[in-house]
Amino acid sequence: MVSCKYSSVLLIDDDIDDRMIFGDVLKELVPDIIYNEAINGEDALAKLEAGLVPDLIFLDLNMPRVDGKQFLAELRQIGHLRHIPVIIYTTSSHESDKKETRALGASYFITKPNSLHELNQLLKGILEHTIQYSL
Predict the structure, then answer these.
(1) E strand or H helix at 134, and its extent?
(2) How far apart (Å, rounded) are the C-alpha atoms in residues 135 and 127?
(3) Residue 130 has pLDDT above 80, yes or no
(4) Is the CB of residue 84 less than 8 Å from the CB of residue 77?
(5) Does 32 have pLDDT greater than 80?
(6) Which Pfam families match (predicted)?
(7) Is the pTM value of this prediction over 0.85?
(8) Where are the domains of the chain?
(9) Neighbours of 134 (CB within 10 A)
(10) Exposure pattern of 5-42 as b/e (b: 16+ CB <10 Å)?
(11) Bridge partners (DSSP) listed for residue 108
(12) Quick one: fold of 8-127?
C-alpha cells in the first residue's frame, strides 16, 4: 500500500485486459482509491460531462471514435477540468507522440510496461510522487 494524495483515477483505454490489469494493480497499491474507466475518449467526455471529476487521468492514445490526442485537446478546453493531470499510458514509444501530447498539455508519458511488476513500480512512483511529471 502506498501513500497517495489522489482519491480518484480515471483510465481511458479501449483494451479490456489493460483496464482490468491496471485496475487490479492500482487497487493493490491504494485499496480505497476510486477507480473509474472509460473505453475511449468519447465515453470519457460523456462521463466528465455527467459530473465525474477525477484527480488524475491515465490516457491511451490509440482508440476508436475519439482517440487520446483528440480527447486531450478537448479536455484542455473545458475550464473546470483543464487542471487535471493527464498521464499518457500507451503502447507507443514514438518521439512524435511524446512531443504532440506535451503540446496538448499531457503531464507525463508512459509506454505500457511488459510486466505487472513494472506497472506496479510505475504506478507507485507516480502515486507517491517519486516520478516527477514532465515529458
Answers:
(1) none
(2) 17
(3) no
(4) no
(5) yes
(6) Response_reg
(7) yes
(8) 8-127
(9) 8
(10) ebeebbbbbbeeebbeebbebbeebbeebebbbbbbbb
(11) 87
(12) Rossmann fold (3.40.50)
DSSP string, 63-129: -SSS-HHHHHHHHTTSTTTTTS-EEEEES---HHHHHHHHHHT-SEEEEPPSSHHHHHHHHHHHHTT
Distance from chain centroid for Cα 9? 8
43-49 contact pairs (CB < 8 A, 24+): 43/12, 44/10, 44/12, 44/71, 45/71, 45/74, 45/75, 47/10, 48/75, 48/78, 48/81
Tens-digit pLDDT profile for residues 66-101 = 899 999 999 999 999 999 999 999 998 889 999 999
% of residues, the chain, pLDDT over 70? 96
Classify residue 119 as exposed, middle or buried by CB count within 10 Å of its CB (0-12, 13-18, 19+). buried
Cα gap 41→14, rounded to integer Å: 9
The amino acid occupying position 118 is: E
- Alpha-carbon distance of 23 to 20, in angstroms, equals 5
